[in-house]
Design brief:
Number of helices: 6
Radius of gyration: 31 Å
Oligomer: single chain
Strand order of the largest sheet: 4-7-6-5-15
Largest sheet: 5 strands, mixed
Distance between the termini: 33 Å
Order of helices and strands: HEEEEHEEEHHEHEEEEEEHE
Length: 285
């Protein structure tokens, strides 16, 4: 009946453009085309305010998602957590205007959150087990020394070098770049002792020491918690050239990333105790 009334209004408009209003208040513009037929377009932008909240908003940390949902939540608001904890991948979608048990809603006002790695996490993960020469390894340690810590919160007895000690090792690596390394061996105190021969007069043999492992305060996701990660120092000496190749191996990093993702899911469940949370995905969000 409403559509019939609109058609009759169009015929009465003497073939001139006119505006009608839909039941939800949205203006609709009708106009005749060159074939004498009528065309129309909905124009919600002409309304003083939108008929309802809508849109998809991307959040960059857990705190922002919580603040956004708490501000706009209503009956029917629901959270979907699509998580692969083993790989550390987690995607969160909040449907603000979701269905209730009794009534349907539009599902078109949503917030999404996919945790992003911090810059530090990207660096340490990118170069994990990446073999580097002396200058490259020294440069990497120098640029990322702020993440190096000497204490493991879960094991007070564990001994790790301080950031200053690691930096000192990095500076010595740069200083000994033009040298020939003879051997490297582990001592009882947990250090690696490198023996090298300088190119100066006399070909003096010298030593360079470094702990075989060091600790990191690792923050996998932006706005997330920090975790302790142990890194093992690895090396290889070329028998022909005496060149030193170094790298590090992050220990149990998969478990750390998995725990970080699980902790995000737990924090969301705690924050949204009054909102339905589902572990899964919804295709139309």
């Amino acid at each position: 009946m409403e559509k019939q009334n609109m058609i009759e209004s169009a015929l009465q408009a003497a073939q001139k453009p006119f505006i009608e209003t839909a039941p939800n208040g949205t203006p609709i513009i009708f106009w005749p085309n060159e074939n004498g037929e009528w065309e129309y377009r909905k124009c919600p932008e002409l309304m003083q305010t939108p008929a309802r909240k809508s849109g998809t908003f991307e959040m960059h940390d857990t705190a922002s998602l919580i603040k956004f949902v708490q501000k706009h939540k209503k009956e029917g608001t629901q959270i979907y957590i699509d998580a692969d904890f083993k790989s550390g991948k987690i995607a969160v979608k909040a449907a603000i205007n979701g269905h209730t048990a009794a009534d349907a809603d539009w599902f078109d006002f949503t917030a999404i959150y996919q945790p992003r790695h911090t810059a530090a996490a990207e660096n340490w993960l990118k170069y994990n087990i990446e073999k580097m020469n002396q200058a490259q390894f020294a440069h990497f340690l120098t640029n990322n020394a702020r993440n190096i810590v000497s204490k493991n919160p879960a094991n007070d007895a564990a001994v790790y070098p301080t950031a200053a000690e690691v930096l000192d090792f990095a500076l010595n690596l740069e200083y000994t770049e033009k040298t020939t390394f003879k051997q490297g061996y582990r001592e009882q105190d947990g250090r690696i002792n490198f023996t090298f021969q300088s190119e100066d007069a006399g070909q003096t043999e010298k030593q360079l020491k470094m702990f075989e492992r060091f600790g990191l305060s690792f923050t996998p996701y932006q706005g997330g918690d920090s975790y302790f990660v142990e890194a093992l120092l690895k090396f290889r000496i070329d028998k022909n050239s005496g060149a030193l190749v170094l790298w590090y191996e992050l220990q149990q990093i998969d478990a750390v990333i998995e725990q970080a993702a699980q902790d995000i899911a737990t924090s969301l469940q705690t924050a949204f105790a009054d909102i339905d949370i589902y572990f899964g995905a919804i295709s139309n969000l």
